[in-house]
Amino acid sequence: MKQIDEQHEKLFEIADRAYKLLTNDFISDKYDKIIEIIGELKEYTLFHFKSEEEYMLSIGHRRFLSHKVEHENFIKDIDNIDLYKIDSNQDQSVKEILEFVVNWIDIHILNQDKLIVES
């Protein structure tokens, strides 16, 4: 489980980069950076979810299917981000991405992933 926890730290790093972008008043056009963060978030979570799901299967985690559905919903939410909306209101978009990641960390990682250890 240490490997999974280390992977979770990367999500904290991505959230931190989003926060730093949000609070950076010296960058007037943040669109490319926002798209970069979204891309990294999707790419990394696909890698992380695969690792986590393989681990859950290896230990016979009884909530595997419902956990996998949560992962799939996360990816769908990322895929459904409106890129045109981002360009028209960049700071609000960064706030929404940051809230999305923080909520995921709070609800999923700190609660659902904790159940993996307890199985």
UniProtKB/TrEMBL annotation:
Pfam families: Hemerythrin
Record SUPFAM superfamilies: Hemerythrin-like (SSF47188)
CDD domains cross-referenced by the UniProt entry: Hemerythrin
Superkingdom of the organism of origin: Bacteria
Domain Hemerythrin-like intervals: 3-116
Keywords for this protein: Iron, Metal-binding
Keyword Transferase: no
Family statement drawn from the similarity comment of this UniProt entry: Belongs to the hemerythrin family.
PANTHER family: BACTERIOHEMERYTHRIN
NCBIfam families attached to this UniProt entry: hemeryth_dom (TIGR02481)
Name the UniProt record assigns to this protein: Hemerythrin family protein
